[in-house]
Description:
By secondary structure, the protein is an alpha+beta fold. The chain has helices at 3-14, 18-37, 83-89; strands at 42-44, 48-55, 58-61, 68-71, 74-81.
Amino acid sequence: MKKDDLVKSLAKKLNLANRDSKKIVEIIIDTITLSLKKNEGIKIRGLGSFEIKNRASRKGRIIATGEQVTIPPRKVPVFIPGLTLKKRVN
């Protein structure tokens, strides 16, 4: 499912115009993004949680040249599915 499919599904289920449901989806995505930028996790019961994980610096290799490089530390967003979601999917 793509974002547009989600927008159409939401519009149909809530009897909204596509532009209104698109605004709702974008607000949810923006809210999650802003919370993750602040290093705040988001937990949604029945779905799961969004968190920021810190990746440590590590050694890597450029495949084309074989040269070793240091990959700098970085923050990555992760989604951890909740138990309810796991049960519903199986």
